[in-house]
Specification:
By secondary structure, the protein is of the alpha/beta class. Helix content is 30%, strand content 23%. The chain binds adenosine-5'-triphosphate (ATP) and magnesium ion. The site of adenosine-5'-triphosphate has 27 residues, from strand 14, strand 21 and strand 22.
Length: 578
């Protein structure tokens, strides 16, 4: 029996802090200063910070100095409008340069930045603007007209709308202003005011995979985590060209699409357009991307587009592919390693953790299907759960930690890392409930093998109890995607009088396969031989697509609700299905 003593090199975060500059004259720590100004001060102002690839036309380069100037102007413009500190600023826009200027300019002005996904409809926008008490919205004229204008009477905290691009003058409302004019009029010098590392900086809404999205609050100290985890898990070096494909509407697109790459001084690719396999391969090739950070669904969709498309491109600059957001099945790891000829590294984290917590590392052996090990400075543990999924508490009042290899428990992290969330908006009780003893517990179930690698089992809510077994949907989904006919699978428990639940799988087939009774039998046989009859799906349903969140996660709760004719709940983050 193997045990896992907690290892925590306490100096890790001190070192991380020392790698940052801090505001001049000891005025504190500000994310935007670390991301932009200090690079310019250290003579790196001419390096390209953001290489923006517009939907059509040539790429546009923004240097670190360009971004310093523009974010200074943005912060001055906010000051001009009367915003001192603690004001909520949201963006509702596609991946355009002004979004990045607004995000970092807001942080300079010591406001709280909230990204909203551009495809949200009016209801999810109103809900988030009101919950976040957003005072300033940065958006485009088209978005404003289509979705926000009619909501104004229901948005009591919203004071100003700043329009990026053309069209502001045609909106007859004194609170709607032309962002470009404001920036032109503002000075390009700005002194960031004192920023306490504990000052609120970011408000992120979770993906809504398991229920109504929660607003997670993060502080400026998070930058220590953004910097260090980018350096350790994504191996970012200032010579890198890095592409994080996540939209800033989700935490990945902010932590690793804005902050971490800039703090680490790299050139960051921002693609305005949506997923398109041909376009993505072309960007990887032409922009000479060296580190590529994406999601399992994206890798599976690239795989579905076929190997020939990939073979028509060359990726000599690429040295690392990383993935987050959902379990990365071994089949996808092996496929991507073959196509890109570089290590393919899964990592795990959540909106609440602010940054990568568990990761495979570039110079460590990868076990396909595993999330890797806790990063230096992070102590992860597995906590024992009872039949109802509640934590088991020991005599000392603390949760009981699992120390044996391969036993499933709730994945937990020793509280206190820099990018840990500091609250759920307006929900102190729920926040408190995430902590037990010294642990933050994540709501995900995992196991740890005898080499210390963590394996994702499923979300607490998704795990299936069948005939006395605890079945993780990921294990079943992985076995199914191993079959050449299956590109993606979503697995749920379907109530059954005899065994509690039976396992039901929804599968999406590769282009060259068609649904048939024979294929269904073949898939069940394949799953049985891999998993055994108790765990293999009893029912298989062919689907043309699965419901995903806009951040790319399979929404098993919707598969379940639809199967059982239950209420679908909050669907604000549901991606429109093909
Ligand atoms: P909500 O909390 O609103 O239900 P969500 O949990 O999907 O939504 P996020 O914070 O965006 O919102 O996602 C974090 C979750 O994504 C994790 O708790 C985990 O379930 C899943 N996840 C992230 N990375 C991985 C990974 N590498 N392997 C498996 N699951 C992952
Ligand atoms: Mg969650």
């Amino acid at each position: 029996m193997q045990t896992f003593p907690a290892q925590r090199p306490s100096s890790q975060w001190d070192e991380a802090r020392n790698r940052l500059d801090g505001l001049p004259e000891g005025r504190g720590l500000n994310i935007a200063y670390e991301a932009l100004d200090r690079h310019a001060l250290h003579g790196r102002g001419d390096q390209v910070a953001i290489q923006w690839v517009p939907r059509e036309g040539d790429a546009v380069s923004l240097t670190y100095q360009d971004l310093v100037d523009r974010t200074n102007r943005f912060a001055n413009a906010l000051a001009e409008l009367g915003y001192e500190t603690g004001h909520g600023v949201a963006t509702l826009a596609g991946r355009i340069p002004d979004l990045y200027v607004a995000a970092l300019g807001t942080l300079k002005s010591r406001g709280i930045y909230t990204p909203l996904f551009s495809a949200f409809g009016p209801d999810p926008i109103a809900m988030r603007l009101n919950l976040g008490r957003i005072a300033v919205l940065v958006t485009t004229a088209a978005q404003y007209r289509r979705k926000v204008a009619a909501l104004r009477p229901d948005l009591p905290s919203l004071q100003h709308v700043l329009i990026s691009g053309d069209g502001a003058e045609e909106i007859d409302d004194p609170t709607v202003l032309d962002l470009n004019q404001l920036l032109e009029r503002a000075a390009d010098h700005y002194e960031i005011g004192p920023t306490d590392p504990e000052d609120r900086a970011l408000l992120h809404f979770t993906s809504g995979t398991t229920g109504t999205p929660k607003g997670a609050l993060h502080v400026h100290q998070a930058v220590e985590g953004h910097a260090e985890t980018g350096r350790l898990a994504l191996d970012l070096r200032s010579s890198d060209t890095f592409w994080c494909t996540a939209d800033p509407g989700w935490v990945t697109g902010t932590s690793y699409g804005i902050i971490s790459p800039l703090v680490n001084g790299v050139t960051s690719i921002v693609d305005e357009a949506d997923f398109d396999p041909e376009r993505w391969y072309r960007i990887l090739q032409d922009q000479q991307v060296s580190v590529f950070y994406t999601a399992p669904t994206a890798l599976r969709m690239l795989q579905r587009a076929g190997d020939e498309l990939a073979a028509g491109h060359k990726f000599p600059s690429l040295r690392l592919v990383a993935s987050v957001g959902e379990p990365l099945d071994p089949e996808s790891v092996i496929w991507a390693q073959r196509v890109f000829q570089v290590p393919v590294l899964d990592n795990w984290w959540q909106t609440e953790t602010g940054g990568i917590m568990i990761s495979n590392l570039i110079d460590h052996p990868v076990k396909p299907g595993s999330m890797g090990k806790p990063l230096p400075g992070i102590t992860a543990g597995l906590l024992k759960c009872d039949e109802q999924g509640e934590l088991v508490v020991g005599h000392d009042g603390d949760p009981v930690e699992i120390t044996t290899a391969d036993e499933v428990g709730e994945l937990a992290l020793e509280a206190g890392w820099p990018s840990m969330f500091r609250g759920y908006l307006d929900n102190e009780e729920r926040y408190r409930a995430c902590f037990a003893g010294r642990w933050y517990h994540s709501g995900d179930l995992a196991r740890r093998d005898s080499d210390g690698y963590f394996w994702f089992v499923g979300r607490n809510d998704d795990v299936i109890k069948s005939a006395g077994h605890l079945i993780g949907p990921f294990e079943v989904e992985s076995a199914l995607t191993e079959h050449p006919a299956v590109v993606e699978a979503g697995v749920i428990g379907k109530p059954d009088e005899r065994v509690g639940n039976i396992v039901k799988a929804f599968v999406v087939l590769a282009n060259s396969y068609a649904p048939s009774e024979e294929l269904r039998r073949d898939l069940i046989g394949h799953a049985r031989s891999r998993l055994g009859a108790a765990v293999a799906p009893r029912e298989i349903q062919f689907s043309t697509s699965l419901p995903h969140t806009r951040s790319g996660k399979i929404m098993r709760r919707l598969l379940r609700a639809r199967e059982l004719n239950l209420d679908e709940g909050d669907t604000s983050t549901l991606e429109s299905q093909a």
